[in-house]
Design a protein that fits this description.
The protein has 649 residues and is α/β, with parallel strands linked by helices. The protein is built from 20 helices and 20 strands. It folds into three domains: 158 residues, Beta-Lactamase (2-Layer Sandwich); 139 residues, Reverse transcriptase/Diguanylate cyclase domain (Alpha-Beta Plaits); 227 residues, Alpha-Beta Barrel (TIM Barrel). The strands form four sheets. An eight-stranded mixed β-barrel has the order 11-12-15-16-17-18-19-20.
Amino acid sequence: MSLIKQLWLAIIFIIVLATGGSFILSTLSSKNYLEEQLQMKNIDNVTSLALSMSQMQKDATTLDLLMSAQFDSGHYRYIGLFDPNGKVLSERVNAKSQTKAPSWFIKLIPIKVQPGVADIQDGWSQYGSLTLESDSNFAYDKLWDATIQIGLWASLIGLVACYAGGKILQKILSPLDEVVSQAKAIGENRFITINEPKTNEFRAVVNAMNSLSNRIKNTVVEESSRLEQLRFQANFDHVTGLMNYDYFIRKIDSSISHEETFSAGVLIVSRLSNLATIDQALGHQETNALLRRIGDALNNECKNFPSLYAARLNGTDFAVFSNQPVDSDSLGTQIKNVLVNFSYTQQESLNANFLTVAINVTKADAAENLISILEAAEKFITFIDSVLDKMNNKNRNTLHVINHSELTKFKNDDKDKWQQLLTSALDNKRIQLEPYPVIDQKGQLIHFESPVRLQLVPDGKWFCAGEFITWATQLKLMSRVDELVLETAIELLSNGADPIGLNVSASAICNPTFIEKTTQLIKQNASIANRICFEIPEKSTFDHLAEFRNFCSQIKPLGCKIGIEHVGSRISRLGELHDIGLDYIKIDVSVIRDINNNEANKTLLRGLCMIAHSIGVRAIAEGVQSDNEIATLKEIGVDGMTGPGIKLV
């Protein structure tokens, strides 16, 4: 039983006890008072009547008339005249007296009054005795009326007391709701803090829980910051702040492996061909300042265009990768101009020369192919550099586009064609979810990752999300895609499917209509809610943090699970999620790839697992490929794994 119910019962018991006690005492007091008054009336009346008879002639008729007059003038039950031997000389009895008090009341509260007795004198001798008993029914009427009035007043006072007590209790216990909510939140791994109440006992509890929440939050924030520094030291160039070669390769490979978001991209490689000359002319500090400007310029470009990643491959070579299909010539020109504009030096005659190559990349290019592509690009740049040297060409800021490849069949079709294809696929529900298992350390299924596939034409190819998501976003059809994905998942789960993980787009968590429809669908299928897992990319989470919080607050109470996927590039912000109640995070393949050979990433992953476990969240590794990676991940302590190398036993 809840504390509030117990307090209410205690209040009602006290009020009933107080009002009931007052009611009983008042009734008994009234009874005693009436008994005393009737007793006094009996004595006074019989004494007065006996005195009158003593002064009269002792004529039987006269005495009888006097008794009748006395009996008729008052409320009497009995008047009797007896001789000295106790023989009845005359008597009057009221046999018709009634009371409005119920019989149970008379039995419960009997009025017991002794009759009044007085002697009648005849000179110096006793003529007889007189017995008089008043009618108690009159007293019962008064006592009944008084009891009803007392009962009504007691009930009214009790109701007023309950109302006032309820208001007072509500005010006193108002902080309790927040305390209970905080306790429930902590039980759900949402470490929130609340204001301290004025009640001492509640304040002590809230202080303890706030301390716990703050300690967890501070731990997560501090560890996230430390891991971010470690990630930077291990994966970024300390001069330019750009990704280093190894991390850049893993990042590109991670993008390509996310087939639900990737279809094609562009790789730009640019060489600062006269870096040695600049370093000799300007010195180490000025050269590093130049490199920092280049790094800042490329990083700013990546912030303005979130689909871009930038890296410093070696001392002279820089690279930019777009994980979205763009025109390679336009992107190459854009990056070349950025490099030229920010590579000014103190000597006007000493210009930085950039040889730039643009290369198309498709989802068929694995990591090992990317390395060969980069090597080919660097060799090509070296060749161009040598040619320009022989030609004594001073204008080295050139762009070359190589390795052209066709994009997806429909990629260059116009907007109307894509509108028709996508609308047709959605209207006819040509959709399916491709299951990929996510298992725990013991090989047991956690859930199935279920990226969406659309069949744009009947009986045609099934397209992964990366091949149509750009157009779906431009045509504002992503909400329809997300809704259809959810409906498909609910249908599968209703037919007994294992738990399903659904990818949710940024537009979905920012769309109140989608959230409303989602909550309605889940409420209508409440029995399967605990087998639905919503997965939001790390980028979407932090780019739309307020909307993500709102999404969680609407979906979590329904029993669904929520996770963040592709975690790895914004580790320092993980502390902001301590109060959301996440169920799991999926760590990006860029951290997981070749984890068995990368000590820095092992340390980083251990820290990520520690952060996740401290707030009650599962840590799941993405893109696992080899047995060596699996063994290392188990040793590190990840809770789950998914990827090409994961098979359900």
